Fold each of these.
Amino acid sequence: MNVQFRAEPSASVSLKTAIADCDIHPARATKDELYPFLAKRWHSHLETYGIQAYHGMMEGPPYPKAQPNASRRDAWPPEGGPQGSSLSFMQKQLLDPYNVALGVLNPLATGQGLRNQDFAGALCAAINDWQIEKWTSKDKRLKASIVVANEDGIAGAAEIRKRAGDPNFVQVLLLSRNVEPLGQRRYWPIYEAAQEIGLPVGVHAFGFGGNPLTPSGWPSFYIEEMVGHAQCQQTALASLVLEGVFERYPKLKMVMIEAGFGWAPSLAWRLDKTFEKLHSEVPHLKRKPSEYIRDHIWWTTQPMEDPERRDHLFQTIEWIGWDKLLFATDYPHWDFDEPSRVLPAGVSDANREAFYLGNAKKLYGIA
C-alpha cells in the first residue's frame, strides 16, 4: 500500500479551478507540541498516565493501517515529523498545486473519546488553540474545526461557545464511533451550542468509544474497517433522526465525513418504510426520516462511490442533491482523491462549481 502521487497535477481542474478541500488532517510534529497550550498539571498527567481511551488501546486506532499514519509515502515532510505536520510542505504538496481556496482542518488525534473527561476537555481546548497558532493564523486559506470532549456534552458545549464568532473556526467536529449512538441525549448540549453559534457539526469516521466497528463484534482486517465506516455513519444518522435531534434543533446542519454517500438513499428508503408502520413509537417526529436527512445532511466526497455506470452515480447525487456535496481529498492519507479524477464527464458547469467550491463556501459562510 505504498501510495504516492505525481510531482505535478495533470488535469485542468486542479490547476485552473479554485476548490474547497473539506477534509484535511493536520498532525503534530512532536508529542510535546501541545504543551504550550496545556496547563502544567496536564503535562505531568500525560507523562505519568498517558492517554486512556475507551477502546482500551494505549494510543492510536484499533486496526493497523498497513501504511504509517495511514498516509501517502510521499507525504513525509522533508524537515522531519509525521505526515501532515508541516504547513510549508502542505502548501507545496496540496494547497498551491491544487488551487485550494478553502481547506477545512479535521484533526483526529485529539482528546475525543478519553475516559478522563477533564483531561479530554483540556486536550481538545489545546488542539483548538494549536490549530490557530500553527495553521489558520499562518495561512488564511485554512479554517479549523472545533474539537470537543464529546462524551461530556456540557463541557463540549462550553468549548463551542468559547469559540463563538472566532473566524478561525467553521464547524464543530465529532467522530462516528462513540460510547452511545450520536442521537442520544448526552450529546444534545453540543448540538444546542452548535445551532446557537451557527456552525455545522461534522461527523468524521473513526472514534474511540470502545464499541466494535460492527454490531456483531470486532472484525479481523483493515479492509473491514475501511468499508465499515459506512455502517457506523448509518447508525449515527439513524440515531440522530429517530431520537428527534433535527426536530429539536431545526437549524442544525451536519456533515458526514469520510464514509461515502452512496448508501444514503437506501437507508432513507428503509427508514421511511419502517416509519410508516412504527411512527407511533416515535411520535416526536413530524416528518419522514428521509426528509430530515435531505434537509439537514451534507456529505464529503472522499471516499466517493465509483460505479461502472456514471448514470448510477448521478442518480444517487440527484437524490442527495448537488447542493449537499463537499469535495474532500483526505490529505495526507493514502486514499487521497485527486480533484481532477473525481467527477466523470457529463456534469454541468453550475454543478461542477458547486461541487468543488460553492457548496462549501455557502455552508461554512465563507465570502
Amino acid sequence: MISLTSPVETRAHRWPAGAKLAALCLASTGLFLTDSLTVHLAALAVVLALYAAPGRVFLAAGMHHLRVVLPFVLLLMVWHLVTGELRAGVLIILRMVVLVALANLVTMTTRLSDMTDLVHRLTAPLRRLGLPAHLLETAIPLVIRFIPVLVARAETLAEAWRARSRRRPGWRLIFPLMLHALDDADHVGEALRARGGPLGHKRPE
C-alpha cells in the first residue's frame, strides 16, 4: 500500500498537522457561513494558486486526485439545471470543490506518521477514560492508505473492461471492486492478527 502524501517537498510539509487541520476547519466554517459567489470564486482561485505554487508535478498530482469529484459536479449541475436553481447549484459545487481540494492539499502535504501522532494526541482524553482509542489510531491510517489502493483497483478494472467492450463500465465495476476491497480487508485483518492485532497492542504513552 502507498501513502497519499506527495513526494514533492513543499513548505507545507514542515507545518504542524494540527495547524493545517485547524485551518481546514476554519475555511470550511467560513465557506458555509457565506453564500457569496465572489467569495467562493476567490477561494477557488487561492486554492488553485496553492496547488500551482510547488510546481507542475505537484499541480498535476493534485488535479489527478480531484478527478473523483467530477461525477458529483456533473450530477449536481444537471439536477440544478433541471430544477432551475442554477445559482444555488454553482454555489454548492464551488463549495464542495474548494473544500475537497483543501482537504486533499492537507493530505498531500502531511505525512501519515504526523497524522497518526496527531490522532494519538487528540484521543488522549479517551484513553484516560479507559476507552480503546488505539483502535481509532489503527483505523485512520488504514483508511488513508487504502484510498489510493482502491483507486488503482478501479482503474485496473476499467482498463480490463475497455479491453473487452466498447460500452462504458459505469456501475458494473462496483460489485467486483467491492469484492476486491473485501479481499484486501481480509488480508489486512490476517496480517494484523498474525502480529497480535490492534486489540492486543496499545501504543506507549
Amino acid sequence: MNSDINIIGESGLQFFGKISASISHEINNVLAIINENAGLLDDFTIMADKGMPIDPKRLKNVASKILVQIRRADEIVRNMNTFSHTIDQIKADLDLRETVEFVVTLSHRFASMRGITIEIKPPENIVIISTAAFFLENLIWLCLDFAMNITGSAKTISILIEETGSGGRIRFAGLEGLTSELADTFPSDRETALLGMLKSELTVSAEEKELILYLPKLHNL
C-alpha cells in the first residue's frame, strides 16, 4: 500500500512537471510572437520618424496579430490556473467529457509535436462521476500518452466517452500499432496504482486496437 502511495505521488509529480513545462513552452512561444510583432511596430515608428509613409493596413495587421496572441496567452494561463487548482480537489463531481477535453487541451503540444490528431466523441448524455480530479487527469494522460505512441500510420486517436450502468468509460480507439506484446506492457505500475486508487479498471485489447478505462460513478478515497 505504501509502495502504491509512493508510486502515485511520484507519478503525480512527473505529470505536474511535464504539463507545467509544456505550458511554459507555449507561453514562451506566445511571447516570442508578440516580441516579433512589437519589433515590427518599432520599425514602423522609425520609418515614420524619417517621414516615410506607413500603410495603415500593415499597422492594423500587426495589432491584430498581437491581440490574437494575447487572447491565446490568456487561455493558456486560465488552463494553467485550472490545472493547478485540480490538486486542491480531493473529491469533486466531474463532467467526464469536460475532463477528457481538458486533458486533451493540456496535451495539445505533445500531440502536435508527434503529428497526431485527437478526435473526441462526446456521450449522448452528460456523465458525472465523483472522484479526485488530479489523479483522474493523471490516469487519462498516461493512457493518452501510451495511445499516442501506438497510433500507427493513421496518427489519429479517437476518444469515445460513454455512460455505463455504474459510471462511465473512456475508449481510446484506432490504435493501429497496438500489438499483443505491447498490450502486455500496459498498464505499468504507475497506471495500476492509479487504477487502484480510483477504483477503476482498464482493459487493453490488441484485437480491437483500443484501451477502455472504466470509472465508477462514485467512490470514497
Amino acid sequence: MTHPGSGWAAVLERSALGTWMRQALWAYPAAEILHLVGIALVVGSVALFDLRLLGLSPQIPVSALSRHLLPWAWRGFALVVVSGLLMFAAHASAWWANPVFPVKMGLLAAAGLNRTVFHRGVYRTVNAWDQGVPPPRAAKVSGALSLVLWGGVLACGRLLAYL
C-alpha cells in the first residue's frame, strides 16, 4: 500500500531490501526478534539507571552503575536502530503515513536530549551525590522524564502495528 507524499518511502519499500524483508520467510521475524532484544537492553538499562536517579538502591554508586549500564544501553540502541531500519524498509510507506510514527521519533529524540542534558549538566556533579545521599532534584527530574519518554516510545512502537 502506498500513500500520497511518500515517494521516497515507496522507493525504499520497492527496493531489493524492502522486498526481501517482506518476502523472505525469516527476514522480518528475525529483525523483529533482534528489535525486541535491543529494546530490552536499552529500556532495561535505562530504567534501572533512572530508578537509581529517583533514589532507589542508594547504596549503589551512580557512577559505577552508569559505567556498567551505559555500554549495554548503547549496544541495545545499535541493535534497535539496525533492526528498526530493516523493518521500516518492509513497510516504509505505511509507517511514514502513520500518525504514530512521528510521535515515536519525537519521543525518541526527546529521550536523547534528556540524556544529553543530564550528562552535560547534573551528572558532572555526581561525586557529591554518588552514593548514600539522595540525588539532586535535577537528577530525579531527568530520571522520571526518561522513564516517561521511554515508556512513550514503547507504547508508540506497539501502536504502529494497530493504527
